[in-house]
Amino acid sequence: MRQPSSEFSEYLTEHQHIEQLAEEVVATVRAGDWSQCGRAWARFVELLESHLTTEEYEVFPQCNNSALVDRLISDHELFRRRLEQTMRAIHEKAATEDEILSLVILIREHGELEDELLYPTMP
Ligand SMILES: [Fe+2]
Ligand SMILES: [Fe+2]
User: Fold this and answer.
1) Exposed (0-12), middle (13-18) or buried (19+): which is 81, by Cβ within 10 Å?
2) Burial grade of 29 (CB within 10 A; 0-12, 13-18, 19 or more)
């Protein structure tokens, strides 16, 4: 597979970092440690939000596969809805491991799709 240029390789590194932060959130929920969970969640959301926004403004406009971009944008919208729901659940100390794991899986699959189909085609 062709590697993306260095301008875009940072996004692939961010995919790994987002996943690590998500795993930390899962671990705090598993431990029932809601104060650590709130902190881990804040770190995760901060990086994810900035990643999504930067892709939308800096990366997607340079991609000429409009069907792929439409799919990726609709994933981003789904993530934002899920982030809202999960944030409320964490605030109410009612978040479940399954809820967060299912979000982690969606984000992982989205990142893999970008790693395979988006970034290798970038100029
Ligand atoms: Fe994305
Ligand atoms: Fe991404």
Assistant:
1) exposed
2) buried
**Ligand 2 mean position, distance from CA 115 (Å):** 8
Q: What are the pLDDT digits (tens) for 3-28?
A: 666 678 899 999 999 999 999 999 99
40 CA distance to ligand 2 middle (Å): 20
- Which residues make Cβ contacts (< 8 Å) with residue 7, sequence separation at least 6? 122
pLDDT confidence bin for 2, thresholds 50/70/90: low
DSSP character for 11? H
Dihedral sign for Cα 96, 99, 104, 107, please. Answer: negative
Q: How many CB atoms lie within 10 A of CB 91?
A: 12
CA distance 17 to 13: 6
Domains of the chain, CATH where assigned: 6-121 (1.20.120.520)
Query: pTM of the entire structure?
Result: 0.90
Cα of 2 vs centre of ligand 1, distance in Å, is 19
Ligand nearest to the CA of 19: 2
